[in-house]
Amino acid sequence: MSERTVDISTPILSRNDRLAAELRDRFRGSHTFVINVLSSPGSGKTSTILATNERLRDGHGLRCAVIEGDIASDVDAVTMKEAGIPAVQINTGGLCHLEGNMIREAVDALDAGVGLDAIDVIFIENVGNLVCPVDFDLGENLSVMILSVPEGDDKPVKYPGIFQHAGAILLNKIDVAPAFDFDQKAYNGTLDDLNPQAPRFSVSATKGDGMDEWVTWLVDRIEAARS
Amino acid sequence: MHEMGIVDGVLSTVRATVQHEGATRAVGVTLRIGDMTEVVRESLDFAWEVLREEDPQTAACELTVEEVHPHSVCRACGNEFDHDVRHLRCPACGSGDTRLVHGRDLDIVSVEIETPD
User: Fold this and answer.
1) DSSP B103
2) Of the N and C termini of chain B, which has fewer Cβ atoms inside 10 Å?
3) Under a CB-based contact definition with an 8 Å cutoff, are residues A195 and B88 in contact?
4) Of A13, A161, A197, the CB nearest to B97
5) Is A134 on the interface with B (CB under 8 A)?
6) pLDDT in tens, A141-163
7) Quick count: other Cβ atoms within 10 Å of Cβ A216?
8) A23-76 tens-digit pLDDT
9) How far is CA A102 from CA A1, A70, A92, A133, B58, in A?
10) How many other C-beta atoms lie within 10 A of the C-beta of residue A188?
11) What is the CATH number of domain B3-69+103-114?
């Protein structure tokens, strides 16, 4: 017996990366802008998607769909469908993040249903988790991180990866800020060093505060991707 | 625990390498993992110990991890700099317009195999 070393030099997640690249090509072909929505459970992903959809639809004529990622249940997909938004539920069965193969199946389902060409924007509501989703490309145009005021200003210090990965950062539930000891200066100071490029928006998805500013920026990004 | 999926991906590559090279088994694999990925080393090691034993081709394969520290380049002034996971702003000119060159690495570098003489 003899031993030798074989050079590999390949990304560990090359299979997922290939799937993500295929999805990105497909989205480009149908002019569909895809947003990977990240946050911990309960920060307001669903209500933010609903409020954003309303403004994209009514103010800009954009047709949205949602891919819901949860460990179990179809609660969020039902909520979306009740709001008139095409939705596909993915149950990960315990897996803490979404992967490219799951998104491909969900996109196939949307394509067979309403047709991908008839969808301008897809929101992927990732599994509520501040760690694992970061390492998995889903073919998205934009990753949006949502933090809510009750979670505290120190989350970017504790979970730098997801805040660094985000292309935009929303601070949600800003309407209840007076009831919480959320240090805006500390929060902004951390993000100034951690992710100086991502724009930040303070919003209340349910009350509407700050939503217009966020949606105006988002529409600019969508139009830039299409041109 | 996405480390299970990562280990599964590594083992697939290791098995494919053993078969492609006509080897009897793998005895080592080297990974390169950036500090800015969300891989927890203890979870990775645990998943490795559990999953490698499922196949005799990988059961004796030792895992080596090279840590990659963050390194960025400033688009404003061209400065290249090392930094920690929380400070990506250029230390020379203060610009936030920087590009991460290393730190998100998640690669298989090499596989050590045992071949019949």
Assistant:
1) S
2) C
3) yes
4) A197
5) yes
6) 999 999 999 999 999 999 998 99
7) 13
8) 999 999 999 999 999 999 999 999 999 999 999 999 999 999 999 988 888 888
9) 42, 12, 9, 13, 28
10) 13
11) 3.30.2320.50
| Chain B, nearest residue to A193 by Cα | B87
Is the pLDDT at A130 greater than 90? The verdict is no
Instruction: Check if the beta carbon of residue A130 is closer than 8 Å to that of residue A155.
Output: yes
So what's the pLDDT on residue B78? 97
- CB-based contact B21 A8, cutoff 8 Å: no
pLDDT band at A190 (very low <50, low <70, confident <90, very high): very high
Backbone angles phi, psi at A30, to 5 degrees: -95, 5
Cβ-based neighbour number of residue B11 at 10 Å: 21
Average pLDDT in the B30-59 region?
A: 94
Rg (CA), chain A: 18
Q: Does A93 touch chain B (CB under 8 A)?
A: no
What is the CATH architecture assignment of A14-226?
3-Layer(aba) Sandwich (3.40)
